[in-house]
User: Fold this.
Amino acid sequence: MSLSIEPTESALGAVVKGVDMGRVPDPDIIESIETALEQYGVLIFPGQDITPAQQTAFSAALAPLEMTANIDARLDGQPEIFVVGNTGAKPVTFAPKFGNDDLEWHTDHIHRPEPARASLLYAKEIPAEGGDTLFACMYSAYDDLAAEQKAQYGSLTAIHSVAGLRNYLREQSEEEDYDPGRQADMPESVSWPLVRHHPRTGRPALYFGAKVTIGIEGWAEETGLAFIRDLSSHATRPEFVYRHVWRHHDAVLWDNRRVLHAATPFDMTRNKRLMHRTTLRETEPVH
Ligand SMILES: [Fe+2]
Assistant:
Protein backbone atom coordinates (compact mmCIF):
# COMPACT_ATOMS: atom_id res chain seq x y z
CA MET A 1 0.00 0.00 0.00
CA SER A 2 1.47 3.39 -0.93
CA LEU A 3 0.41 6.63 0.67
CA SER A 4 -0.41 9.85 -1.11
CA ILE A 5 0.07 12.93 1.06
CA GLU A 6 -1.20 16.28 -0.21
CA PRO A 7 -0.58 19.35 1.99
CA THR A 8 -3.38 21.89 2.43
CA GLU A 9 -2.70 25.52 1.55
CA SER A 10 -2.75 26.44 5.26
CA ALA A 11 0.08 26.49 7.80
CA LEU A 12 -0.66 22.87 8.64
CA GLY A 13 -2.68 19.90 7.51
CA ALA A 14 -2.38 17.31 4.75
CA VAL A 15 -4.85 14.97 3.08
CA VAL A 16 -3.72 11.34 3.19
CA LYS A 17 -5.01 8.72 0.78
CA GLY A 18 -4.11 5.06 0.46
CA VAL A 19 -4.79 4.16 4.09
CA ASP A 20 -7.66 1.85 4.99
CA MET A 21 -8.37 2.39 8.68
CA GLY A 22 -10.38 -0.80 8.70
CA ARG A 23 -7.06 -2.70 8.79
CA VAL A 24 -4.33 -2.60 11.39
CA PRO A 25 -1.44 -0.72 9.68
CA ASP A 26 1.93 -2.31 8.87
CA PRO A 27 5.06 -0.89 10.55
CA ASP A 28 6.09 0.97 7.35
CA ILE A 29 2.66 2.63 7.12
CA ILE A 30 2.86 3.57 10.80
CA GLU A 31 6.27 5.16 10.23
CA SER A 32 4.98 7.13 7.20
CA ILE A 33 2.01 8.34 9.25
CA GLU A 34 4.21 9.36 12.20
CA THR A 35 6.61 11.27 9.94
CA ALA A 36 3.75 13.08 8.17
CA LEU A 37 2.01 13.78 11.49
CA GLU A 38 5.06 15.63 12.83
CA GLN A 39 5.57 17.44 9.52
CA TYR A 40 1.97 18.55 8.86
CA GLY A 41 0.46 18.46 12.36
CA VAL A 42 -2.99 17.39 11.11
CA LEU A 43 -3.68 14.44 8.80
CA ILE A 44 -7.05 14.13 7.06
CA PHE A 45 -8.13 10.65 5.95
CA PRO A 46 -11.32 11.10 3.89
CA GLY A 47 -13.92 8.45 3.17
CA GLN A 48 -13.15 5.99 5.98
CA ASP A 49 -16.02 3.65 6.75
CA ILE A 50 -15.01 2.10 10.06
CA THR A 51 -16.59 0.53 13.10
CA PRO A 52 -15.69 1.56 16.67
CA ALA A 53 -13.66 -1.67 16.98
CA GLN A 54 -11.72 -0.86 13.79
CA GLN A 55 -11.01 2.72 14.91
CA THR A 56 -9.78 1.40 18.25
CA ALA A 57 -7.55 -1.25 16.64
CA PHE A 58 -6.04 1.21 14.16
CA SER A 59 -5.36 3.79 16.90
CA ALA A 60 -3.91 1.19 19.27
CA ALA A 61 -1.37 0.23 16.58
CA LEU A 62 0.03 3.79 16.84
CA ALA A 63 0.15 4.17 20.65
CA PRO A 64 -1.41 3.01 23.91
CA LEU A 65 -4.90 4.48 24.21
CA GLU A 66 -6.31 6.66 26.97
CA MET A 67 -9.94 6.67 28.03
CA THR A 68 -11.91 9.82 28.77
CA ALA A 69 -12.40 10.63 32.45
CA ASN A 70 -16.03 11.38 31.60
CA ILE A 71 -17.40 7.88 32.09
CA ASP A 72 -20.80 8.79 30.61
CA ALA A 73 -19.08 9.66 27.31
CA ARG A 74 -17.40 6.28 26.83
CA LEU A 75 -19.05 4.25 24.08
CA ASP A 76 -20.95 1.20 25.35
CA GLY A 77 -18.96 -1.92 24.52
CA GLN A 78 -15.94 0.05 23.26
CA PRO A 79 -14.87 2.31 26.13
CA GLU A 80 -11.74 3.56 24.29
CA ILE A 81 -14.12 5.58 22.08
CA PHE A 82 -14.96 9.02 23.49
CA VAL A 83 -18.38 10.02 22.16
CA VAL A 84 -18.30 13.74 21.35
CA GLY A 85 -21.56 15.25 20.22
CA ASN A 86 -25.05 16.43 21.03
CA THR A 87 -26.91 13.24 20.16
CA GLY A 88 -26.88 11.55 23.57
CA ALA A 89 -28.61 12.26 26.85
CA LYS A 90 -25.62 14.28 28.11
CA PRO A 91 -24.11 16.32 25.27
CA VAL A 92 -20.34 16.77 25.09
CA THR A 93 -19.56 19.39 22.48
CA PHE A 94 -16.64 21.59 23.59
CA ALA A 95 -18.11 24.10 21.16
CA PRO A 96 -19.24 27.57 22.20
CA LYS A 97 -22.96 28.22 22.01
CA PHE A 98 -22.73 31.50 20.15
CA GLY A 99 -20.54 32.84 17.38
CA ASN A 100 -19.00 35.60 19.46
CA ASP A 101 -18.07 33.39 22.43
CA ASP A 102 -14.43 32.53 23.11
CA LEU A 103 -13.20 29.39 21.42
CA GLU A 104 -11.76 26.72 23.66
CA TRP A 105 -8.31 26.41 22.08
CA HIS A 106 -6.47 23.52 23.69
CA THR A 107 -4.29 20.46 23.26
CA ASP A 108 -5.83 17.24 24.59
CA HIS A 109 -5.08 16.10 28.14
CA ILE A 110 -2.42 18.76 28.81
CA HIS A 111 -3.77 18.82 32.39
CA ARG A 112 -2.94 15.15 32.93
CA PRO A 113 0.42 13.70 34.05
CA GLU A 114 0.44 11.72 30.78
CA PRO A 115 -0.96 14.05 28.13
CA ALA A 116 -2.40 12.93 24.80
CA ARG A 117 0.25 12.87 22.12
CA ALA A 118 -2.27 12.58 19.30
CA SER A 119 -6.02 12.26 18.86
CA LEU A 120 -8.13 10.70 16.11
CA LEU A 121 -11.60 12.11 15.49
CA TYR A 122 -14.03 10.31 13.21
CA ALA A 123 -17.12 12.03 11.81
CA LYS A 124 -20.32 9.99 12.22
CA GLU A 125 -22.86 12.82 11.86
CA ILE A 126 -22.10 16.41 10.87
CA PRO A 127 -24.16 19.59 11.06
CA ALA A 128 -25.36 21.23 7.85
CA GLU A 129 -23.40 24.29 8.90
CA GLY A 130 -20.79 25.05 11.57
CA GLY A 131 -19.21 22.59 13.98
CA ASP A 132 -15.90 22.88 12.14
CA THR A 133 -12.61 22.15 13.88
CA LEU A 134 -9.87 24.77 13.79
CA PHE A 135 -6.23 23.72 14.16
CA ALA A 136 -3.42 26.17 14.98
CA CYS A 137 0.25 25.51 14.26
CA MET A 138 2.33 26.03 17.40
CA TYR A 139 5.60 25.73 15.44
CA SER A 140 4.53 28.78 13.42
CA ALA A 141 3.33 30.66 16.51
CA TYR A 142 6.71 30.07 18.18
CA ASP A 143 8.76 30.89 15.06
CA ASP A 144 6.91 34.21 14.77
CA LEU A 145 8.02 35.41 18.23
CA ALA A 146 10.75 38.04 18.61
CA ALA A 147 14.16 36.75 19.75
CA GLU A 148 13.74 38.21 23.26
CA GLN A 149 10.29 36.59 23.59
CA LYS A 150 11.72 33.22 22.57
CA ALA A 151 14.40 33.60 25.25
CA GLN A 152 11.87 34.59 27.93
CA TYR A 153 9.19 32.03 27.03
CA GLY A 154 11.80 29.27 26.94
CA SER A 155 12.36 29.80 30.67
CA LEU A 156 8.66 29.74 31.66
CA THR A 157 6.67 26.89 33.15
CA ALA A 158 2.91 26.95 32.64
CA ILE A 159 0.31 25.45 35.00
CA HIS A 160 -2.62 23.46 33.58
CA SER A 161 -5.74 22.34 35.41
CA VAL A 162 -9.06 20.76 34.63
CA ALA A 163 -10.46 23.56 36.84
CA GLY A 164 -9.85 25.98 33.95
CA LEU A 165 -11.73 23.69 31.58
CA ARG A 166 -14.50 23.15 34.11
CA ASN A 167 -15.03 26.91 34.47
CA TYR A 168 -15.29 27.27 30.70
CA LEU A 169 -17.71 24.35 30.33
CA ARG A 170 -19.81 25.67 33.17
CA GLU A 171 -20.11 29.01 31.36
CA GLN A 172 -21.20 27.11 28.23
CA SER A 173 -23.57 24.68 29.90
CA GLU A 174 -27.17 25.04 30.94
CA GLU A 175 -26.41 22.72 33.82
CA GLU A 176 -24.70 24.73 36.52
CA ASP A 177 -22.90 21.76 37.97
CA TYR A 178 -21.63 20.38 34.68
CA ASP A 179 -18.37 18.57 35.29
CA PRO A 180 -16.09 17.09 32.61
CA GLY A 181 -14.97 14.48 35.11
CA ARG A 182 -11.66 14.01 36.85
CA GLN A 183 -10.20 10.69 37.81
CA ALA A 184 -9.62 10.38 41.52
CA ASP A 185 -5.91 9.75 41.08
CA MET A 186 -5.34 12.85 38.92
CA PRO A 187 -3.58 15.84 40.48
CA GLU A 188 -5.52 19.12 40.48
CA SER A 189 -2.84 20.68 38.26
CA VAL A 190 0.29 19.78 36.29
CA SER A 191 3.11 22.01 35.03
CA TRP A 192 5.00 21.79 31.73
CA PRO A 193 7.52 24.03 29.97
CA LEU A 194 5.69 26.65 27.90
CA VAL A 195 7.99 25.83 24.98
CA ARG A 196 7.97 22.15 24.18
CA HIS A 197 10.47 20.46 21.87
CA HIS A 198 9.01 17.80 19.61
CA PRO A 199 10.49 14.40 20.53
CA ARG A 200 10.91 13.39 16.87
CA THR A 201 12.69 16.50 15.63
CA GLY A 202 13.51 18.75 18.59
CA ARG A 203 11.57 21.57 16.92
CA PRO A 204 10.14 24.07 19.46
CA ALA A 205 6.40 24.68 19.78
CA LEU A 206 4.23 26.64 22.20
CA TYR A 207 2.44 24.24 24.56
CA PHE A 208 -0.60 25.55 26.42
CA GLY A 209 -4.39 25.96 26.19
CA ALA A 210 -6.50 29.10 26.25
CA LYS A 211 -8.75 27.92 29.14
CA VAL A 212 -7.02 24.92 30.65
CA THR A 213 -3.79 26.84 31.32
CA ILE A 214 -4.39 28.73 34.55
CA GLY A 215 -1.07 30.43 35.23
CA ILE A 216 2.69 30.73 34.99
CA GLU A 217 4.83 29.38 37.82
CA GLY A 218 6.16 32.18 40.04
CA TRP A 219 3.80 34.80 38.61
CA ALA A 220 0.77 36.45 40.23
CA GLU A 221 -2.46 34.75 39.10
CA GLU A 222 -3.85 37.77 37.25
CA THR A 223 -0.55 38.45 35.48
CA GLY A 224 -0.38 34.84 34.33
CA LEU A 225 -3.97 34.80 33.08
CA ALA A 226 -3.48 38.05 31.16
CA PHE A 227 -0.32 36.60 29.59
CA ILE A 228 -2.20 33.45 28.53
CA ARG A 229 -4.99 35.56 26.99
CA ASP A 230 -2.47 37.56 24.94
CA LEU A 231 -0.57 34.42 23.98
CA SER A 232 -3.80 32.74 22.82
CA SER A 233 -4.56 35.71 20.55
CA HIS A 234 -1.08 35.58 19.06
CA ALA A 235 -0.90 31.82 18.65
CA THR A 236 -4.28 31.44 16.92
CA ARG A 237 -3.91 34.19 14.33
CA PRO A 238 -5.57 33.20 11.03
CA GLU A 239 -2.27 32.67 9.21
CA PHE A 240 -1.39 29.87 11.67
CA VAL A 241 -4.78 28.13 11.36
CA TYR A 242 -6.27 25.37 9.23
CA ARG A 243 -10.07 25.08 9.33
CA HIS A 244 -11.43 21.59 8.85
CA VAL A 245 -14.95 21.58 7.43
CA TRP A 246 -16.08 18.05 8.16
CA ARG A 247 -17.46 15.61 5.65
CA HIS A 248 -19.22 12.38 6.54
CA HIS A 249 -16.67 9.64 7.37
CA ASP A 250 -13.66 11.94 7.58
CA ALA A 251 -11.09 10.73 10.09
CA VAL A 252 -8.65 13.39 11.30
CA LEU A 253 -5.50 12.66 13.29
CA TRP A 254 -3.63 15.53 14.94
CA ASP A 255 -0.39 15.95 16.85
CA ASN A 256 -1.15 17.39 20.29
CA ARG A 257 2.56 18.10 20.79
CA ARG A 258 2.50 20.94 18.28
CA VAL A 259 -1.12 21.78 17.43
CA LEU A 260 -3.95 23.53 19.29
CA HIS A 261 -7.52 22.87 18.25
CA ALA A 262 -10.98 24.29 18.88
CA ALA A 263 -14.51 23.49 17.73
CA THR A 264 -16.66 26.23 16.22
CA PRO A 265 -20.31 26.74 17.17
CA PHE A 266 -23.29 25.22 15.40
CA ASP A 267 -27.03 25.40 15.92
CA MET A 268 -27.49 22.57 18.42
CA THR A 269 -31.28 22.87 18.36
CA ARG A 270 -31.46 22.00 14.64
CA ASN A 271 -28.33 19.97 13.95
CA LYS A 272 -26.75 16.80 15.16
CA ARG A 273 -23.00 16.42 15.45
CA LEU A 274 -21.55 13.07 16.45
CA MET A 275 -17.85 12.25 16.53
CA HIS A 276 -15.93 9.27 17.83
CA ARG A 277 -12.54 10.11 19.34
CA THR A 278 -9.67 7.84 20.22
CA THR A 279 -6.90 9.36 22.32
CA LEU A 280 -3.26 8.31 21.98
CA ARG A 281 -1.29 8.56 25.20
CA GLU A 282 2.04 10.39 25.36
CA THR A 283 4.90 7.91 25.65
CA GLU A 284 7.80 10.41 25.63
CA PRO A 285 8.76 12.80 28.41
CA VAL A 286 7.31 16.30 27.95
CA HIS A 287 10.36 18.00 29.44
FE1 LIG B 1 -9.91 18.37 22.16
About this structure: Residues 56 and 80 are 7 Å apart (CA to CA). The first helix runs from residue 27 to 40.
